[in-house]
Amino acid sequence: MPKEKPELSDAMRAKMSRKTPVKNPIIGTKFTIAISSAKGGVGKSTFATNLALALKQIGCKVGLLDADIYGPSIPKMFGINEKPKSDGQKLEPIVKYDIQCMSIGFLTDQQTPMIWRGPMVTSAIKTFTQKVNWKDLDFIIVDMPPGTGDTQLTFSQDIKMDGAIIVSTPQEVALLDVKRGIKMFDKLGVKILGLIDNMSYFTGDDGKKYKIFGEGGVKKTADEFKKEFLGEIPINPEIGKTGDNGKPIVESNPNHEISKIYLEFANKIKSTYL
Ligand code: ADP
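Above: the input record for the complex with adenosine-5'-diphosphate. Below: its predicted structure, written as tokens.
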């Protein structure tokens, strides 16, 4: 009698039929780090730009990729009004403050809304990762769009990502989204380097710390999901002002107490990878 083949469980069959996605590293960089936030307006782009500048300040070669197709911030925060050159094959990144930058905002009018469907966004992300002449970089810092959509999926599945940092404010409503963000990266196999508590408090003229958006929520979330809590950045009007002026605080005032916080984060990342 012929031997019967053992039955495969459904889970096993699903596992075997799943193709291992081919991951394309971004050519021209050693490491790709995503700065993510589940919600908009929590300070993700501010963090990405200042972290990139802090890494540069400690001797790393850095690129900054604005992957927020619907709401690019890098042109404004870095004060860039040029269009990138192209040789017909590849785009040249625009170099500002010694950082190689690319953003959809360099290619469109600042006030033009990007009314694109998902596949076009995916295609733009592929162009920015595969068809830009990134050169000799240690790190590319990717400013992700908020949420858990096409861009996150494309980066996680098709592009080699070395780590993600999640930025949040301590508000409950932001933290709910953070939990979704953590689960997404875990599910997609992207290493989460840790969580940042941005706008964690404001120091008044009386020297007291005011926890405007609540207290301890980001750290608690990090603990709950066994992720590292990287630290807090207070509310400081100088951060907003310098970003709006196109020269973020780490570049315009490297000795500011806030710049020193970014430098600590940069040192930590440098020592993790290099
Ligand atoms: P996101 O990228 O998450 O949408 P942004 O980086 O654009 O958020 O920040 C939203 C606004 O908050 C900007 O005006 C920025 O200057 C300001 N901001 C961010 N972090 C801080 C902070 N720690 N203190 C004061 N203002 C901040």
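Notes for the reader.
The chain is about 35% helix and 20% strand.
The pocket of adenosine-5'-diphosphate is lined by residues 37, 40-46, 73, 198-199, 233, 235-236, 239-240, 243 (CB under 6 Å).
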